[in-house]
């Protein structure tokens, strides 16, 4: 087993994973290779003669790789990370999550494209690409967005820490916020779900099971983020319905994601709409959020696969 992580969470995650390694692998040989994903050129090298990590040639590839690295956190070098993950898959390693799943969930609009045609409740969406004149292209797209009927949501399509989501009651608000938009980021206009009380469910999926769920509400309705403290848990006794669990599991199965957070926007009469899927969430942080043994659940899922390959 390899654990590919980035510098930000390397030490913390190693502290979390090592006790489980010792506890669960009494009868199984384990290779724990942390911090493969680094910025230094000498740390990782793919060449015609093979793969080198810190100038040492890799002679044996792992059965499984737990991926806890994301290009959004690791300097934005998406191509380098994707190349590494694809190489490991070509050499026979099973990634958790797969490179294709990570790519599908890195951009919410691409996620929507992958999920379309599967009879899932998705928000009506327009994509806005800010061209040479961002303000002009944004205003033109805002007119198209009127078809969704105000109020509407304006969301960054890339799933990153600090992801911006604006709530606009009218077009005038969108125009007044144009200067806040990041020109390098594509944005999505989405229909606002009325009747849901501005609440959403964050559902943690591990394997084919729901490992945790949290009901959240936005404080301000001006700026939201999937990783922001603008959200708070409003009901500690709340339990996700069977319909919500089934929807989250179906989303994860379609995207072929092993470990992910599925965000469901609440609608009328207990209905849900798929908002986004995050396949690169930090397991240690998730444990704090859900008050569950998320690291243990993820490792048990990975170990089940390793054991199936040994038999």
UniProtKB/TrEMBL annotation:
<dbReference type="GO" id="GO:0005524">
    <property type="term" value="F:ATP binding"/>
</dbReference>
<protein>
    <submittedName>
        <fullName>Ribosomal modification protein rimK-like family member A</fullName>
    </submittedName>
</protein>
<dbReference type="GO" id="GO:0005737">
    <property type="term" value="C:cytoplasm"/>
</dbReference>
<dbReference type="InterPro" id="IPR011761">
    <property type="entry name" value="ATP-grasp"/>
</dbReference>
<dbReference type="Pfam" id="PF08443">
    <property type="entry name" value="RimK"/>
</dbReference>
<feature type="domain" description="ATP-grasp">
    <location>
        <begin position="112"/>
        <end position="308"/>
    </location>
</feature>
<keyword id="KW-0067">ATP-binding</keyword>
<dbReference type="InterPro" id="IPR013651">
    <property type="entry name" value="ATP-grasp_RimK-type"/>
</dbReference>
<keyword id="KW-0547">Nucleotide-binding</keyword>
<dbReference type="GO" id="GO:0046872">
    <property type="term" value="F:metal ion binding"/>
</dbReference>
<dbReference type="GO" id="GO:0072590">
    <property type="term" value="F:N-acetyl-L-aspartate-L-glutamate ligase activity"/>
</dbReference>
